[in-house]
């Protein structure tokens, strides 16, 4: 797994460009239950909106919260629209989020998701945030965690955006392994109903509103291969009781195919793009999908 993670870091390292911001990144401790010792850095813009939205942005393998801050456009967009960004960091050696253990794949089961939801709840209290405007987005390992978080805590998040991820539960292991090659290589294929049942099983008995989902994947992804994209679509359309037939298809720019499934799920397929797909402008698309571009 370490070799894979290092390769991922190299891939992602060429995508992002540093950004300048007026406000600064601040580390916060003692934010609540945190069984896996995650770290938290917070970006609060100088002009924060009244009852601001809160965006949780988990990083890719071998990355960190400060890497996500420097390498993506979310803080710049926060300056523009007044929302707060939470940048968590894994402290275990491989710097990958736990999206594989039985503890992580159920609500309040333990491990990283418990610490992540503590961060969100802390931020809502600290900044008088709007609990109806809480979102999560990540790249690779962070995208996988995005899917896990919206499954575990559908009552916390209004929407998620996963950039090059896999379905919730796909990376599950029962032998202590932190890497699932079958999933990574796109060989775990299930029906929409099966994937939907996996997501629903993270919070048994929950019958409330489910988060909207935006899914991104490159057709040439050689780390988390492209079949995972279709499996994600199957999962979240089923969670929303939708068919896998899109209600609309368009092409926002060259080599992009966007399919919408009602107003709950949208997928963006990027032709001939590899795993390093977080390019300029994509963060804005996620922020617009969330509705964070409206104060």
Automatic annotation (TrEMBL):
GO terms for molecular function: hydrolase activity. Residues 1-22 form the signal peptide. It comes from the Bacteria. InterPro entries: AB_hydrolase_fold (IPR029058), Esterase_phb (IPR010126), Plant_Biomass_Hydrol_Est (IPR050955). Keywords: Hydrolase, Signal. It holds the Pfam family Esterase_PHB. GO terms for cellular component: extracellular region. PANTHER family: FERULOYL ESTERASE, UNNAMED PRODUCT-RELATED. This is PHB depolymerase family esterase. It comes from Lentzea alba. The lineage of its organism: Bacteria, Bacillati, Actinomycetota, Actinomycetes, Pseudonocardiales.
């Amino acid at each position: 797994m370490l070799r894979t993670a290092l390769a991922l870091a190299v891939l992602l390292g060429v995508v992002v460009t540093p950004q300048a911001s007026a406000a600064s990144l601040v580390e916060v401790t003692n934010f609540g239950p945190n069984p896996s010792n995650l770290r938290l850095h917070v970006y609060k813009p100088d002009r924060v909106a009244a009852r601001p939205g809160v965006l949780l942005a988990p990083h890719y393998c071998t990355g960190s919260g400060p890497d996500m801050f420097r390498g993506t456009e979310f803080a710049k967009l926060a300056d523009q629209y007044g929302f707060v960004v939470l940048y968590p960091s894994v402290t275990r050696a491989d710097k990958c989020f736990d999206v594989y253990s039985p503890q992580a794949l159920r609500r309040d089961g333990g491990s990283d998701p418990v610490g992540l939801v503590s961060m969100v709840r802390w931020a809502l209290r600290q900044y008088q945030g709007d609990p109806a405007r809480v979102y999560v987005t990540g790249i690779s390992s962070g995208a996988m965690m995005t899917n896990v978080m919206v499954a575990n805590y559908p009552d916390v998040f209004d929407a998620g955006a996963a950039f090059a991820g896999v379905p919730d539960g796909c990376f599950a292991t029962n032998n202590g392994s932190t890497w699932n090659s079958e999933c990574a290589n796109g060989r775990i294929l299930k029906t929409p109903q099966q994937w939907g049942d996996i997501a629903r099983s993270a919070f048994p008995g929950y019958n409330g509103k489910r988060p909207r989902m935006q899914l991104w994947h490159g057709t040439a992804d050689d780390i988390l291969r492209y079949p995972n994209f279709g499996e994600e679509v199957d999962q979240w359309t089923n969670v929303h009781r939708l068919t896998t037939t899109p209600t609309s298809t368009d092409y926002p720019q060259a080599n992009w195919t966007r399919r919408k499934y009602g107003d709950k799920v949208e997928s963006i397929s990027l032709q001939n793009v590899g795993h390093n797909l977080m390019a300029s402008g994509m963060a804005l698309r996620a922020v617009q999908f969330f509705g964070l571009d409206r104060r």
